[in-house]
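queue> holo job accepted (cytidine-5'-triphosphate)
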Amino acid sequence: MNSLTNKNIILGVSGSISAYKAPDIVRRLQDLGAQVKVILTEGGAKFITELSLQSISKNKVHYNLWDEDAELSMGHIELAKWTDAILIAPASANTIANIALGKANDLLSSVILASNAALLIAPAMNLKMYQSHALQDNLLTLISRHAIIIKPESGEQACGDIGIGRLVEPLSIAKQVAKQFISTKLTGKKVLITLGATIEAIDPVRFISNHSSGKMGMALINACIEMGASVICIYGNITTTLNEKSNNMPIISAQQMYTKVMNNIAGQDIFIACAAVSDFSVKNTKNQKIKKDGKNLILELIPNKDILADVCKLGKKPICMGFAAETQNTLKNAQKKLKNKGCDVIILNDVSNTDFGSNVDENEVVFLSQNLNKKIAKNSKKKVAKKILAIFIKEYL
Ligand code: CTP
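queue> job finished
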């Protein structure tokens, strides 16, 4: 399945009568899962309004290279970095010539020069203009620079002529954009991931927590997003950067994480419990700072609910992957967790070795399921995440 889930697309709209189809192109790209931002050229603005493109794309339309406010918020370099592909539809003869010459005289041409993203061009113009040597030479130049030309169709043209030059239908254009991205068995799947450390308050200034950094969970999120999954990230305390393409939901305590997971788990295909959830919370959290009085202080802790075990008990449960952080009898304990929690996969993490596990950049794990016991050798968490998902896809998707 070709999909644009997690993909950012810039749609350049230039001066052609078929610019009226641009809102439909935006829709079709969105239907495939893309976020779309439109750049309107001066010519394009003669045929379609900024307002209609803004309403459909739900993003500000960009058109002016010299707009100081735009440069402050999202200038041409930011747009170039943001996008995964640039589609020009309709592409006029003038815009095509501009790009072939490598000019940077308007916003669209400047963004194209500043970007390494795939470039797709859907020409639309009168047949004589399309067949002209100049236009065809420009297209060949762009093809030699790896641009993809979405060849126009034949038919009756706005000017009354009959022949090649009509803009391809929006759905077909959107599908050609999607084809530029590799699709995997995770493409279009819904994944909910918990990560980071939960925090249990003792009083307004003190708490119980753990050393989890969230790095392993984040590596899994990044890999899932790269493979086209749509991800909900429910995170506690983390020391790593969030991926802006996931739906990020912060929590503090284990109870909050439990509620957030249960409220969002319906319809998810895969649940990955990577969070280091506190097994206990403080029975009587104090509203005021506890003062020392020279005597021992006894905190009463009450058990928290097990999120992973409860998700595994759901009637329509997703495929569940948990982590087992162990310091002794690691394999035995992890196998026990696999069975007791009722999950499909447990990733065993030996946290007695400080070289890997929590709060470091590398990890070494064992992928455990009912039929499988596969060691994934020490590597960066990014590479380990990819290996975990590769085995997971092979076994379950
Ligand atoms: N987990 C969870 N909810 C909890 C506790 C743990 O969802 N209240 C999940 C973790 O995210 C992890 C797995 O269960 O995927 C195992 O967590 P771990 O801390 O290794 O084990 P515990 O179940 O807490 O058991 P113990 O601390 O006794 O080893």
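queue> Residues 8-179 form a domain with the Rossmann fold fold (CATH 3.40.50.1950).
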